[in-house]
Write a structure and sequence with these properties.
Layout lengths: L9 H28 L8 E3 L1 H18 L3 E6 L6 E3 L1 H17 L6 E9 L2 E8 L21 H7 L5 H11 L4 E5 L5 E8 L10
Parallel strand pairs: 2-4
Antiparallel strand pairs: 1-3, 4-5, 5-7, 6-7
Helix pairs in contact: 1-5, 2-3, 3-5
């Protein structure tokens, strides 16, 4: 005690710091979502190597997976073409989906990241062996502030904005995003991006 004041315990300081970081993240997420919904979020479209972006995202989150002894695996088609998108935003969407998969998968589970081509679209999927999502929740999963289990999200620091932002980003890049899940049997989040169209040179 100094000057009649109690010194804060380290545990309290750590808790306050964590809460401050969560509030800052919430403010940043709300700003991003508002800009995206208004069509004012900066998107820098160009040729994107999906294989490279996936490897970067997986590497960034591999430590989180190891802490829970979760097997994190990549499965990408050999002839995967480049896509027309924003590399930074593709990575942002991927990190969100992979991070969620790791959070909601029990220890010693597995998360699979795959990519393949179909009908001039590249499909990027993140599949987990977690608890899955109830069927009645699926239509609302990409809505802002929607949380399947509010108590579970409080434990993991979620505010229900990550998937709403991911949806807006994917749509701004000309793609779609959807989820397939069975309660108790894991989930698969998939988003698509258009294959890069290379114009043939004009004949002289």
């Amino acid at each position: 005690m100094q000057d009649g004041l109690l010194e804060p315990k380290p545990e309290l300081l750590a808790s306050l710091y964590e809460e401050t970081m969560l509030v800052n993240r919430l403010i940043n997420d709300l700003q991003q979502l508002a800009l995206a919904e208004a069509g004012q979020l900066h998107i820098e479209m160009g040729a994107v190597d999906v294989h490279h972006v996936i490897e970067q995202a997986v590497q960034a989150l591999s430590a989180d997976a190891r802490k829970k002894e979760i097997h994190l695996q990549i499965n990408i088609s050999q002839d995967l073409p480049r896509v027309q998108a924003d590399s930074e935003r593709v990575g942002q969407v991927l990190r969100n989906l992979i991070s969620n998969a790791i959070k909601y998968t029990p220890p010693k589970g597995a998360v699979f990241v795959s990519a393949y081509t179909n009908n001039q679209q590249v499909y990027i999927a993140v599949k987990d062996t977690g608890h899955g999502i109830p069927q009645e929740a699926l239509p609302y999963i990409f809505e802002r502030f929607y949380r399947v289990d509010s108590s579970r999200n409080r434990k993991t620091g979620g505010y229900g904005l990550g998937l709403a932002i991911a949806k807006q980003l994917v749509q701004l890049m000309g793609g779609t995003i959807y989820v397939e899940s069975t309660d108790g049997h894991g989930s698969t989040f998939t988003f698509t991006l258009p294959v890069l169209q290379i114009e043939a040179p004009e004949k002289a």
